[in-house]
Amino acid sequence: MSRRPKVKTVTRRKLISALLFGGAITTLASPRRSFSQVAQRVDVKHPAALAVGYVENVNQVDLKKFPSYVKDSTCENCALLQGSAGQNYRPCSLFDGKLVSIGGWCSGWAPEI
Q1: Which residues contact 86 (CB under 8 A, 6 or more apart)?
Q2: Which of these, 99, 103, 101, 79, lies nearest to 91 by C-alpha position?
Q3: Based on the structure, what is the number of domains in the chain?
Q4: Are 44 and 77 in contact (CB under 8 A)?
Q5: Which pTM value belongs to this model?
Q6: DSSP one-letter string for 27-82
Q7: 69 inside domain
Q8: How far is residue 72's CA from residue 3's CA, in Å, rounded to a whole number?
């Protein structure tokens, strides 16, 4: 007579419990940005910044490359700038919340309404 190995059965309840527990562990272990962490500034050499001609100082705008530049347009008076006034670097929705200089400019500039 051959011996059969004992097979553990997995019930639907055990499977769902394991999936929920695994999801909870993954959620708790995943890195999250806390409010106390400081957002990063946009690197002017990053491909996304280069594509739109982002500069931290509006005086550095290449007027030949970006003839659409409007005099006195800066990140500070752009509709895409977020955050509260009074800070030199604030989040920009164009750069996924990364910080831009309020004295900067890019071709994504849109006038505040």
Answers
A1: none
A2: 99
A3: 1
A4: no
A5: 0.65
A6: HHHS----TTSPPPBPPTTSHHHHHHT-BSSGGG--TTT-TTPPTT--GGGBTTB-
A7: yes
A8: 86
Tell me the C-alpha to C-alpha distance, in Å, between residue 111 and each of 61, 64, 74, 79. 17, 21, 9, 6
Q: Is residue 31 in some structural domain?
A: no
Are 35 and 19 in contact by the 8 Å Cβ rule? The answer is no
CA 107 – CA 113 distance, rounded (Å): 17
In a domain, 82, yes or no: yes
Report residue 100: phi and psi, to 5°. -120, 155
Go through 66-83 and write b for each residue having 16 or more CB atoms within 10 A of its CB, e for each that does not: eeebeeebbbbebebbee
CATH number at residue 56: 4.10.490.10
Give the model confidence (pLDDT) of 13-65 as tens digits. Answer: 765 666 555 555 555 555 554 444 568 999 999 999 999 999 999 999 999 99
